[in-house]
Specification:
Chain lengths: ~180, ~500
């Protein structure tokens, strides 16, 4: 009975939002966070006999995530045209220079409530774009609007969610809001 | 050239042209605020991508072996198009979109369950009744264990024994005695031994794999024996065969094997003894001067209060039962309260402040239906109140509120309450240790998490509830956080219990 694997997997799961926060800092490339998180998970499990899962795993996971994030970020951006590579590098430096620690872990916990507070149309847009993976040109075509309009609408939805999260965090976060 | 929001969106979507990339680069170089804005959108974009399983009332489902859980689920184009059409209606009128989201489902590798145990001593890691069993070896020193395979076969094993679960319809016995009941639905159930394999054709039989002996006895129906070095033999009711060496026919001897009737009567005796042992240990526990509150749930049936059994001076008051109904606890004769409704709770008060704290409870969790499932929570929040709870993911959390405007801190143990642990009585404990500056979580007496304490300021529990939460600050409605399950013991000390004390408590509790 391989209970260790289960323990290691469970220990990782407890921290996977933390891992995503670190991944975002070192690899700010769209859609890459999930891949980094999965890769760290696999590497963590591959060496599970080395870890004491009863201890605080964050320092270990932070180091592992940083290495994986930088590796995958390099692989991903290398395939891009030079001008996009320069932009990506600039964004990466900006993200790394942020002094505040990653707050992803705390913020994702309150996102659910904030999503429920969105106006119906905004929620539907999130459903379409993020959950049903319909691109902005297709959404624009279906609703007979310009793609720019849909882009701005998505931008506003993200800003509203950001404001809602900030307000919730000021009140004490998800568990106690 | 599109404006900055559109460029950011196109960057997030991965469709920037080289001209647009150059333009966006120029914008964020010239205006650092645009760069920060892009990062904020990038972070929110990542969270929204990850929030797929968080919406529609569903946080992430607990998973036992979630190797591929992070893979993004793609949705069929037809469904996406249908959703698009719905959006048209929604933007023009007020139509709602049916979600086409597919969520990850929890999985289990278990193939059988331990349903009875009498005086069982384990050589392999101990299992309690109700434990789902995954393929692997079970080693028993002594006692009786009844295992029910998911395909329907029921096997009663007598220790000492070594028994390997292979699948829901197959096992290997290398040492020990067992009897098996195989209903027609489980026909084809196989038990391998070092000397041969028994294939059951819907029957009851006994198997003895002791040193130098391998015997199969058929009590009812028919089995096939496939000896390692001989041709297959068919054995019918009343027949037995020794097959360690040259096959020798015998008469079946049902009295040589424990029967399911035996385990029924021995289970009752064993449970009665457990209850008596627990009562005797309870007396000792109650005398601890640091024990401020202990509910043993042995109050008069139908009582609407729980009497505090702590014998110490300065003990806290009794608890008041609201809604929750009485049910059976770990053994017949042991009381428990069932929490299943939004109103179910036990209200109590812990006045003053405490520097150190140990909480312990014996609970049976039926499911984790809510985002936060209360074990023991101070009313409202703030000013060093505590929330001991289980999250929907199955992790055990001690939340401690900050004081004077400081942020709260959540001390989380790893995910513990997976679906395999639902429906079983489990003892859990948490220790707030300001001297070691640690919060420690325990389950079944084992340390499962040791977390550095961020703020050792004394705690102020105040009015609190078992199995629920009330927020007196809210006027429009209180978040639903009641427990779905039962509790049959709860204790609170204003001192730190050591690891060995918690381990002993798990045996006593």
């Amino acid at each position: 009975m391989n209970t260790d694997e289960t323990h290691a997997a469970q220990a990782f799961l407890t921290h996977h939002d933390f891992v995503k926060g670190v991944a975002l800092k070192y690899a700010p490339w769209p859609g890459l966070v999930e891949d980094i998180c999965q890769q760290v998970f696999l590497e963590f499990l591959a060496k599970e006999d080395r870890w004491d899962v009863s201890r605080d795993l964050r320092p270990l996971l932070a180091t592992m995530t940083r290495h994986v994030a930088m590796r995958l970020w390099r692989e991903r951006t290398r395939q891009q045209p030079e001008v996009v590579q320069k932009l990506a590098e600039h964004i990466r430096q900006l993200a790394e220079s942020q002094e505040a620690p990653p707050r992803y872990e705390e913020e994702i916990a309150v996102l659910r409530n904030c999503l429920q507070k969105l106006p119906e149309k905004s929620r539907e847009l999130v459903e379409l774009y993020y959950y049903n993976e319909v691109g902005t040109p297709e959404i624009a075509e279906q609703i007979n609007m310009r793609t720019d309009t849909v882009c701005r609408a998505l931008s506003r939805v993200r800003e509203k969610l950001r404001e809602c999260i900030e307000r919730s965090m000021e009140r004490g976060g998800a568990a106690h809001a | 050239m599109p404006e900055v929001d559109t460029l950011i969106q196109r960057y997030l979507e991965g469709v920037l042209s080289t001209d647009e990339a150059e333009a966006l680069h120029g914008l964020i170089e010239a205006n650092p605020e645009d760069g920060r804005r892009l990062l904020r959108h990038l972070e929110m974009d990542a969270m929204l991508r990850a929030s797929k399983g968080l919406t529609n009332g569903g946080m992430r489902a607990p998973m036992l072996l979630p190797k591929r859980r992070f893979t993004v689920t793609t949705v069929a184009g037809v469904a996406a198009l249908a959703a698009c059409v719905a959006l048209v209606g929604g933007w023009i009128g007020s139509g709602l979109i049916e979600s086409t989201r597919s969520e990850s489902e929890a999985t289990t590798a278990s193939v059988a369950v331990l349903t009875r145990a009498v005086n069982l001593e384990w050589e392999s890691p101990a299992m309690t009744v109700g434990t789902p069993l995954v393929p692997g070896v079970l080693k028993m020193k002594s006692g009786l264990a009844q295992i029910e395979f998911y395909h329907g076969a029921r096997v009663l094993i007598e220790g000492p024994a070594e028994f390997e679960l292979v699948s829901a319809g197959e096992a290997t016995c290398t040492r020990g005695k067992l009897s098996a009941q195989v209903p027609p639905q489980a026909k084809g159930f196989r038990i391998n031994t070092p000397k041969g394999t028994i294939v059951d054709l819907g029957t009851e039989f006994g198997l003895d794999v002791s040193s130098g002996t391998s015997e199969v006895h058929v009590f009812k129906g028919e089995v096939e024996l496939h000896p390692v070095s001989d041709a297959m033999r068919s054995l019918k009711e009343g027949q037995a065969l020794s097959f360690a060496g040259a096959p020798t026919s015998l008469a079946a001897n049902p009295l040589g094997f424990a029967s399911l009737g035996d385990i029924d009567s021995r289970t009752v005796d064993s449970q009665r003894m457990e209850l008596e042992r627990w009562k005797a240990k309870s007396q000792i526990l109650n005398e601890d001067s640091a024990l401020k509150l202990r509910f043993d749930f042995q109050d008069r049936l139908g009582s609407r209060s729980l009497m505090n059994q702590a014998g110490a001076e300065g003990r806290n008051g009794d608890g008041s039962i609201v809604g929750a109904e009485w049910t059976q606890g770990r053994w017949p004769g042991k009381g428990a309260l069932e929490f299943r409704n939004v109103s179910d709770r036990v209200r109590l008060s812990i006045p003053g402040e405490t520097k150190a704290l140990t909480l312990a409870a014996c609970v049976r969790i039926n499911g984790l239906d809510r985002v936060f499932n209360s074990l023991f929570m101070s009313e409202s929040w703030g000013d060093r109140k505590i929330h001991w709870q289980i999250t929907r993911d199955g992790l055990i959390r001690l939340g401690v509120a900050g004081s004077g405007g400081d942020r709260h801190v959540d001390y989380d143990a790893p995910v513990f309450f997976t679906p395999e642990r639902f429906g079983r009585w489990i003892q859990i404990a948490v220790v707030f240790d300001p001297t070691a500056r640690e919060v420690r979580h325990y389950a079944e007496g084992d340390l499962i998490a040791r977390l550095p304490m961020k703020d050792a300021t004394p705690l102020r529990i105040g009015i609190a509830e078992l199995g629920n939460w009330n927020d007196s600050r809210q006027k429009g409605g209180v978040a639903i956080r009641h427990l779905s399950g039962a509790m049959d013991e709860f204790a609170l000390w204003d001192r730190v219990l050591r690891d060995d004390e918690i381990a002993r408590l798990a045996r006593w509790f």
